[in-house]
User: What shape does this take?
Amino acid sequence: MISTIGDEHVEREERVGSADSIGLFTVRSGGHSPLSCAANLQHSLEIDLSPFNEEKPSGDGSCTKIGTGARWGDVSMALDARGLAVVGAMASHVGIGGVTLGDSNVINYEIVLANITVITASETVHSNLWEALKGGSNNFGIVTHFTVRSSPSTNVWSNFLYIGPGQYQKVLSAFHQAVRNVDPNTPDNSTPDEGAAGPLACFTILQQSLFHVQVISNNLVHTRPPPQRSSLTSSWPGVWVDSSFKSIWRFRSTLSMGSMTSATDGTNALSSLVKRQLLATTTFKNDPRTIDAAHKAYSAGLQSLCSARVKDLSFTLVLQPLVPAWACKGDPNPCGFDAPS
Assistant: This one.
């Protein structure tokens, strides 16, 4: 593969006179992203890393070597069999490469450099490159394998509540309060629930040619449910049992105990794998008025989309908490940067 890329580079330079005048190559790992040009460019060569798709836990279970071309569903399935888990994506169809670059749990990277040598970058070997790959964007090389920390794991309590659109105000309020409850930096919250994750609050419209359907889906997760809890939705664990989500009427619930694989499969079920997508993100504080304003902006956009009657359109607003304490869990300096002098 490496020599082929080198030959292609030389040939294209000879044809066009400059390597800058035409795209040389792009890299595709799991191939999850539905965005145009996420892993391809016009007139360029695509390097497909899907053959690098193995998952190899160490003998003691402390780490796992993962091929860049694998997807998280494959990883979860392999680790479930060993009672292990690693930090990864919430949906099983997501590829390894894009999510894991920048991950503080990576012990080392196997990477192909521009001079076609293959090296391993870790905290002790090629440490500058190791730090750069932990959040320094791209173009340092092509990562073919990640070795990441793994830890013991059992079944988790997770999945979705499906709620009618008329209860959006209750959902927004429950979301705000739940994020306060899981954030250890919230005043008067000295004992946050370490097992709680989420919530996700998803507001979706499904448009057909002559009609549309709106639905709210809420994802709740608990990674340390008591062993005596059953799969019944009445047996909500930890902080969720006292949350406002429990009292909101829903027409369907898939919340249950299951493996990490079933949890990521449940999230993946709400994603379209065949439609083109356009994504945009923004970040704001967990403030009730700001959350309400975000929902109002989304609702205003619905009116013009519904009047256009775009068949098979799906338009979703997703509220997802990003608690700073979670990013630093286990390490106050997750990227390993030196303190300023």
